[in-house]
Amino acid sequence: MILKCLFGCLATTRILNYANDVHNLKISDEKGNDLKWDKANHNTWRVYTNGSSSIQLTYDVKTTRSFVATNYLNQSRGFIAPTGLFLHLANQINLPVTVKLKPYPGWNKVATGLEKVEGKEFTYKAQNFDVLYDSPILIGNLEELPSFTVRGIPHYFIGYQLGDFNKVDFMKDLKKVIEEAVNVIGEIPFKSYTFIGIGPGGGGIEHLNSSAVAFSGSKVFDTQAGRRTVLSFLGHEYFHHYNAKRIRPVELGPFDYDNGSRTNMLWVAEGITTYYDEMLLRWADLESAEDIFKGFQKSIKSYELSPGRLFQSVSQASYDTWADGPFGRTADEVNKTVSYYEKGPVLGMMLDLKNPS
Ligand SMILES: [Zn+2]
Fold it and tell me: Ligand 1 centre and the CA of 40: distance in Å?
């Protein structure tokens, strides 16, 4: 029997070696007898089942920091980045899967895009492991902001330490942004959507019907100007469920969990989403036309002044993104490369100007 963990899945920007964090693996048969196993390669475990028809695994996963792509656990919450926690049977990623959580005493809530198993507390299901891997789970002492519906579909925002600000006003604005995102495509391809606030920090990752976002609200959010950056960030992650998750480069689904999935189209998945995250705010009347032009002006100027534009195209930048390392482009590389987050939205704007509708 061959079991697989995932080598990495942060498809758009980085490969993470999740298998390295698996420790103290014990495998036993249905009678509780230990079974022999060994490592078949960097993310694969070979189990000598000895004729046993079912096996049980226990293992620890090391967690070191709270981040949208990694597992994290402390006394007040646990965040599950499923790609780094759940193993699947080799070549059987399409098997349905059920997950039962055992919350620490006092923990009150779960935030996830996974479907609940009716009648069973803290139990969730996915039609296959690919869906499970695309559905992070946050559990702990969480707070839920006032939810809203768009075209009949509920949208939730549940998170840890969300901060002190006018949550009703904030969610009213977020609803406007989401409505504009939905208006671009015209339909919503899921039964519910959840923003999962993992706590303070930076970064966000889009998933099928949820996104994991580092978030800590403050009184600054009580002004529209202060709210704008975070609304455009949330609009960006949300818009990805269209552009990146469903309208996507062919390489980005199903993922090659063993080797990663390189594509030269991140300028579309990321860059054009960045164009829309600005436009959503404009359409929602949360940003003036003048401000949005200033933003694009800044991006065009920065691109035209960067020597990297003479060395690298956005397709090359997309393909090479994993070579950048965890801290992005450094030293002289900055002058020889372009950012698809900067040039991509400008191209998005130009395509939009070319095809007015
Ligand atoms: Zn993005």
Answer: 34
pTM: 0.92
- What CA–CA distances, in Å, run from 61 to 7, 88, 193, 258? 14, 15, 28, 19
Tokens 């959010």 belong to 221
Task: Tell me the pLDDT tens digit for each residue of 132-180.
Answer: 999 999 999 999 999 999 999 999 999 999 999 999 999 999 999 999 9
Q: How far apart are CA 59 and CA 164, in angstroms?
A: 38
CATH number, domain of 182, equals 1.10.390.10
The contacts of residue 212 (CB under 8 Å, 6+ apart) are: 68, 69, 79, 81, 136, 138, 196, 198, 204, 205
**Same domain (yes/no): 340, 200:** yes
Distance (angstroms) between ligand 1 centre and the Cα of 12 equals: 8
Spell out which residues have Cβ within 5 A of ligand 1, the ion: 270
Ligand 1 centroid distance, CA of 211 (Å) = 11
CA of 241 to the centre of ligand 1 (A): 10
Model confidence pLDDT, tens digit, residues 10-39: 334 456 788 889 999 999 999 999 999 999
Say if residue 226 is in the same domain as residue 343: yes
Residue 46: count of CB within 10 angstroms of its CB: 15
Helix (H, G, I), strand (E, B) or coil at 321: helix
**Element holding 303 (H helix, E strand):** helix 289-304
